[in-house]
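Posting this for the archive.
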Amino acid sequence: MELEGTVLHKSFVFAKRIAKLYKHLLAQGQPRALADQLLRSGTSICANMEEATGGFSRRDFAAKCGIAYKEARETHYWLRLLSETECLDFRLAESLLTDAEELRRMLSAIVCSTRENS
């Protein structure tokens, strides 16, 4: 199965970008607590989608997708906060915010369609 273009693939690529950003933030001496929060939520999106694809039931799948959706929203928040407190360059933040929003929309659609089909 081709994963490119799927939410699983996009969330993995996003997690890699977040991990690299985490290292960059620490190297730049930015607040570790904020960087840690971003790393947790930004990598959790894909981790929950991996769990969702291995779910034992539709309910389990929907629950994990719902968690991934919440993590995408949280990641968007941390990126916005880092940008607006000048801990993160606006151009880099803008690209990541766009990706986080795209993931949020995709996950929202998955959650809604899964609930409708249940």
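The mean pLDDT is 92. The radius of gyration is 15 Å.
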